[in-house]
Automatic annotation (TrEMBL):
Name of this protein: Choline dehydrogenase
Organism for this UniProt entry: Ectopseudomonas guguanensis
Taxonomic lineage from the root: Bacteria, Pseudomonadati, Pseudomonadota, Gammaproteobacteria, Pseudomonadales
Gene3D superfamilies according to UniProt: FAD/NAD(P)-binding domain, Glucose Oxidase, domain 3
Regions that span the bilayer: none
Cofactor(s) for this UniProt protein: FAD
Length: 557
């Protein structure tokens, strides 16, 4: 192997999603260290990334999405699901629903109580505020001068206002803000946009620092495996421009590849459950049974209702004039349907009075379609999507090959726990009560999916398996904690391996009660703080990057 001395790096960050972008920003703020940020996808210069409704053209598009699929899931009557994950600068923040959501204070207090000091709500609230640029300015709950823009939405729909009133008539109170620690109630989502344009993590955390001489951003580079030496992660093998590169790190390698990518990379490196590694002939470099286990996701049940006498997006897009009007409104005002987040109205509620706190989240949309990527229905309708915020079902992620180009097996095991089946049935009942409230009566709502024929407990549980689909919130596959199933400690260091951390949604020991993007930014903010603290310790001697064959010097891609 020819060895060519090239740049060396203090920190290697794998994955330029929300966590990777923020970490690159915070770590490279110290001019005395060097940072390499590695992204398998390309630059975020695809126009549909930035027009909010463009998520419809980014999900399922290999330009921006890994285009994963789950295994056939027994809980979904054998259906396999498309499982979008961002593969572009900004990661999932470039293709997601743009909803700014923190979850509930009790989520984080639960992490701390489970043996993870420093992760309680009182600890993480300042970290949420640090990166936040809230439209209302700084307050006890919000930050006013961070990079992560939070704005109100720029359009309204009569059908959504009627649903909000119907929710109030059903006992779900109107509130102004979901992000104070207790999100029970109904309100409009705040979104990560800047004047009607998507605000992704690349814009927030990379745009203004790309010229830092100590930061290099490498796109189109897929991480293949880690190299361990003396109980430490010493290097990373990449595939870039058709060549294999070995990049060595002086301080740390930080995995920010997400709940699918991070466990897959660990497993390809011989770090994970022994039976899997031996079956694939990888060899066990470091046994950690929890790698890839504990997969959690929010399963959404998309209830669809036909309506009369009210505007919905279905009818607007049905004519060329409607589409032209949408385009002109966005071009001239940066408002209207093209500025829409996928969901505008939200609600958090209890599936039954015995719940200690809200365990359901609604995403209500003035539109309907069979599934993402397909045309809207040709009749006016709205969708009330409801998910169980704290599922008991657990799945797993497992590689099927040592080849990084082969997608891993994803088995969510939705509705495999009887308690989740009960919550699903109760969620459908609650949705029907809201829709039957007087505020919606004038629009004559008629249930299209799952359909009024589903009435008994068995019927409703069967319906959940028929209409349930991911809401794109996988977490937990490199769980933080102690004991048999834990992968990282409370400082996000991989158990038993020096110089290696995981910083993304995979470290969540239990899923947060809401959307996951902004909690990942909080995790990265805390990780940056801990990495800097640990950097005060003596560092290893300088190491260099080796290239197999001839390759040009690494440049910012």
């Amino acid at each position: 192997m020819a060895q060519t001395p090239l740049d060396s790096y203090d920190y290697l960050i794998v994955g330029a999603g929300p966590a990777g972008c923020l970490l690159a920003n915070r770590l490279s703020a110290d001019p005395g260290v060097s940072v390499l940020l590695i992204e398998a996808g390309g630059r975020d210069n695809y126009p549909w990334i930035h027009i909010p409704v463009g998520y419809l053209y980014c999900i399922g598009n290999p330009r921006t999405d890994w285009c994963y699929n789950t295994e056939a899931d027994p809980g979904l009557h054998g259906r396999a699901l498309k499982y979008p994950r961002g593969r572009v600068l900004g990661g999932c923040s470039s293709i997601n629903g743009m909803i700014y959501m923190r979850g509930q204070a009790a989520d984080y207090d639960g992490w701390a109580a489970a043996g993870n000091p420093g992760w309680a709500w009182r600890d993480v609230l300042p970290l949420f505020k640090r990166s936040e640029h809230h439209f209302a300015g700084a307050s006890d709950l919000h930050g006013g001068d961070g990079e992560w823009r939070v704005e109100r939405q720029r359009l309204s729909w009569d059908i959504l206002e009627a649903f909000r009133e119907a929710a109030a008539q059903s006992g779900i109170a109107r509130i102004d803000d979901f992000n104070g620690g207790d999100n029970e109630g109904c309100s409009y989502f705040q979104v990560n946009q800047k004047r009607g344009v998507r605000w992704n993590a690349s814009k927030a955390f990379l745009r203004d620092i790309r010229q830092r001489p100590n930061l290099r951003v490498l796109t189109g580079a897929e991480a293949e495996r880690l190299e361990l030496e003396g109980g430490r992660a010493s290097a990373l093998w990449l595939r870039w421009q058709g060549r294999a590169l070995r990049v060595a790190a002086r301080r740390e390698i930080v995995l920010c590849a997400g709940a699918i990518g991070s466990p897959a990379l660990l497993q390809r490196s011989g770090i994970g459950p022994r039976p899997l590694l031996e079956r694939l002939g990888i060899g066990v470099k470091h046994e950690l049974p929890g790698v890839g286990e504990n997969l959690q996701d929010h399963l959404q049940l998309r209830l669809i209702y036909r309506v009369e006498g009210v505007k919905t997006l279905n009818r607007i897009v049905a004519t060329p004039w409607g589409k032209l009007g949408m385009g002109l409104e966005y071009l001239l005002k940066r408002s209207g349907p093209l500025s829409m987040a996928p969901s505008q109205l939200g609600a958090f509620a209890k599936s039954d009075p015995g719940q200690a706190r809200a365990n359901l989240q609604y995403h209500v949309q003035p539109l309907s379609l069979e599934r993402f990527g397909e045309p809207l229905h040709d009749f006016p309708a709205f969708t009330a999507s409801v998910c169980n915020l704290r599922p008991h079902s657990r799945g797993r992620v497992a590689i099927t090959s040592v080849d990084a180009a082969v997608a891993p097996s994803i088995q969510p095991n939705y509705l495999s726990d009887e308690r989740d089946l009960q919550v699903a049935a109760d969620a459908i009942r609650l949705t029907r009560r809201i829709v039957a409230a007087p505020a919606l009566a004038g629009y004559r709502p008629e249930e299209y999916k799952p359909g009024p024929q589903y009435q008994s407990q068995a019927d409703l549980q069967r319906a959940a398996g028929e209409i349930g689909t991911t809401i794109f919130h996988p977490v937990g596959t490199c769980a933080m904690g102690q004991g048999q199933g834990a992968v990282v400690d409370a400082r996000l260091r991989v158990h038993g391996i020096g110089g290696l951390r995981v910083v993304d949604a995979s470290i969540m020991p239990s899923i947060v009660s809401g959307n996951t993007c902004s909690p990942v930014l909080m995790i990265a903010e805390k990780a940056a703080q801990m990495i800097k603290e640990d950097a005060l310790r003596p560092v290893l001697p300088a190491v260099q990057l080796q290239v197999r064959g001839e390759a040009p010097l690494l440049r910012e891609a």
